[in-house]
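User: Quick sanity check before I run a bigger batch. Here is a single chain. Can you write out its predicted 3D structure?
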Amino acid sequence: MKTFEELGVAEPLRRAIEELGFEAPMPVQEKVIPHLLDSKAGDVVALAQTGTGKTAAFGLPVLQRIDPDINKPQALILSPTRELCLQIGSDLADFSKYETAVKVLPVYGGSSIESQIRSLRQGVQIIVATPGRLIDLINRGVVNLDNVRTVVLDEADEMLNMGFLDSIDEILSHIPDERKMLMFSATMPDEIAKIAKKYMQQPVEFVIGQKNEGAQNVKHVYYMVNARDKYLALKRIADDTPNIYAIIFCRTRRDTQEIADHLIQDGYNADALHGDLSQQQRDIVMKKFRDRVITMLVATDVAARGLDVDDLTHVINYGLPDDTAVYTHRSGRTGRAGKTGISVAIIHSREKGKLREIEKKIGKSFERKEVPTPQHIIEKQLYSLADRLERVKVDEEEIGKYLPGVARKLEWLSAEDLLKRVVSLEFKRLLDYYRDAPTIDFIDEKPKRERKDNDRPRNDKEKDRRTADKGMARVYVNAGKRDGFYAGNLIDMLNHTVEGKRVDVGRIDLMPGYTLFDVPQDDARRVVSGLTGAEFLGKHIYSEIADEKKDYAKASNRKSKSKNNENIFDEPAETIADYFRKKSRTNNSGKKKSRK
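Assistant: Done. Predicted structure follows.
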């Protein structure tokens, strides 16, 4: 293994990175740094996951190629997002600690353009930019790129995903052809090859690992549960990992906000990151996450692009993405800088094919795991508490002042009694929650057996929906999938409308026009009382304890025809067109006679 000195890195830069804890070059740095420092070498396409040390791989040679006597932009680094732009700028500032004449400026949207203009006019040698803000500055005549000799496209595949191809075209048209160009990407879609062919001169390709594969230090596991149990499984995975520090990826903004809200309501340090947040809100959430004020960040893929956070223990896929490259990006956010991480997929049976496709693309197998049981979770948490008690630092001088009084107050307790109270105080919420925790149904992946004569016939399925599990009561509510009403909406409504302690929900059956779900028998009447009269998206909610003999599909259609509760989506399908024709005639009556 070579040293940074053997790679040709200058002494001031070596001194700075040694103080940052760099000991030996990582594989991507060994390959890229000597090539970039060789003025005769061609351009570079480097395929490497996030967390492999690529910022230093391009940052150190970029800094070394700068002439500090020329107070004009000599290097341009493009990144897809504000967060990555700031991270790169911060890293370059750290690397150049002893190169005080070199000035680095991040320019990005969402921040004062006037202050960025002032800094540019004072002179900078390296610009780290998001494409949109850089084009704005070029059009204002503030940025001149005539002296740029090094161009870096970081996370190029993400820039393509975000639609920046035209912006890249525009920016490169302002840069001299005599330039050295570097392109870093986690995956190698066809568009990356086209960019290399169009803009690069005799590019050399460096591949760290294999193309499109997952990060080396990441373990891939999956839990297969019924779709209705995904949130319960998520909570159990979190509870089974006392020191969890994770990003939870969801497919939609709505799911992201709902899951984050539920986690917060259930006592977890969580928050949401999605496109509906303002830049200020986004910055606040990210600061809390980096400072570990929150330990679970629920995010969409778009909102998390360019997010650079170290030491994540888990990346959790609350449903798999359609594109394997997206999964590669997600999982690459853990297991970074030589550390290990876990990428978790919580899936239902219909996602099994997608899982196998991802396995083939990344060249790794997923390990199937069972959702942790309450007993295992409580044991894990207790041992974690014991570890924390063992490692806690005691300030003898400060705490000693108060110990005699505390000792007198607790002297009647034995050591065993005291320990029991400490544990109970710490774990009351957890113990209360898991005392009557519902069973999570595990999906059996074995082939379905043929139905025998004594199996239940298919026409008993409707009756099964109306029958509660043991110890539970079945509750009906007149909102279903056609109303946009799903499990998350039900949980949210229960939390906001039912008075008293939180209601534990068991099996949920979502139907087009109604929903049936289980709650503990003692809570059933309280739930019905709380739900009845509530509203969901303008629909008045009715609830009752389910009757096994009642046909709720017909009952829901009858209730939807109430004048005070009109909802076209509870009408039988063949009457919807009639409904709109009737409404049209009603709205036009008295305004204008129709022409015959």
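Confidence is low (pLDDT under 50) at residues 446-461, 559-596.

User: Great, the batch can go ahead then.
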